[in-house]
Amino acid sequence: MTNDATTTQETIAVFGATGSTGRHVVRHALAKGYKVRALARSPDKVSVEDGNLAVIKGDFKDLAALKETVQGADYVICCAGGASGKAYEAGMMIAFIRRLWPLLEAEPALKVFLFQSVIFAPKPDGSLPLLLKLLGPVAAFLNGNTRMLKDNTQVTKFIAANTSDHFDYIVTRPGAIAEKEGGKALKTDQNKGSLATITFANLGGFTVDALKDPSLYGTCPFVVAAK
Hints:
Layout: E1 11-15, H1 22-31, E2 35-40, E3 53-57, H2 63-70, E4 75-78, H3 92-105, E5 112-116, H4 130-142, H5 146-161, E6 168-174, E7 177-178, E8 186-189, E9 198-199, H6 200-210, E10 222-225
Parallel strand pairs: 1-2, 1-4, 2-3, 4-5, 5-6, 6-10, 7-9
Antiparallel strand pairs: 8-10
Helix pairs in contact: 1-6, 2-3, 3-5, 4-5
């Protein structure tokens, strides 16, 4: 194990731990020497077994489970996406973040909250590259993800409008993601997104590493493949 966490072992709380990105976040965090606390509706779906992993049973509406998950966390990552298409519950994510926020504020050790959004979600001020602004509503409509896009947009605005005095935030905006091996290393771009496919595995690793990049704090970067 390569331990890149600090000498006093740091803890990452993960929401969406059984999802396509989340399971890679958990594995990468454990490999880097972090303790991980993961919320899961079905704990048996967390395939990793590790002495540094604690799985808390519950869902986004379970306030006690949310509190238990973030308890003592140095970092919190949300890479949950909800059901894709028309099965997506309208307003699900913004309701969750509003419920979670007071719990984050109450955690004195918390340093960074990272939320994984989508490439078509604008910055808090509404800005988005013209091509993405034109493609976003069309792509969301065709894929049945209009409600998801609206939800992610609301979350970004909420996070930026409720910045904390004691922890920073990062809102990442990856483009197309695929479940495949290999793939290029990833980087951020504050102004230009890319629809080129990246991998869930690389995104999971990137997400954990981003927590300790102060240049990303308070920003909403696109996540793209490095050239």
